[in-house]
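Pipeline run #58 for the internal structure catalog. This entry was flagged by the ingest filter as a single-chain record with no existing model, so it goes straight to prediction. Upstream metadata was stripped on purpose; only the residue string is passed forward. Reviewer on rotation: M.T. Logging verbosity set to normal.
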Amino acid sequence: MNKDLIETPRFNFFIGDEVLLKGKIVGFDVDENKCVENVVRLEYGQTLNVANNNIYITDDIVDKSKIKVVVPQCVAEYIEFKKKNNFHVYGAMRVIEDHYDKKVPDWFYENNIEKFCLAWLNGYEVEKEKRYFVKIKGNIKGNMLVYGELLKRYFFTKNFSLDNVIYSHTRKELEDANFGWVFDCSGIEIEEVEYDTNA
């Protein structure tokens, strides 16, 4: 038998087959239509410009230990407190239902046990808390609750262009300042804010 024929690589694919190539994104480029494309270097050195819709990341490529889960602020505080007091993950989970803030065990038992473990082991990002405008209902002049940074207190105002005031508040900020009642008061209008008005 011909030795050259035996050592000739066999083709595993046919013309027209769709294939995925393994590579690493090494930069970005702008094409003739002014669209940004990824510059991908293949394992053997060649580079290609590839649009986002043609990039796939598979589970075996992604280092899942670098992906941080997102947890609520109360859970982040619980994890930090337990770690500071030398708990291990099992110990922290075992006593979670005894925690004074019932939002923590409620979140934990809403199918978040694995997420809690990942947060403990790999770190986490804190979920952005919802922010709210608080207004007195009706046609009242001073109807917006604000926090004066210089005065260091909450007050109602009609002026919406004050400097050094915070217009939107998290539930925790309001509860800590004894304004938690606004969420249950029929004379108060609560409006969820889509963006951070204080930035």
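catalog note: The chain is about 25% helix and 25% strand.
catalog note: The chain has a mean pLDDT of 82.
status: ready for reviewer M.T.
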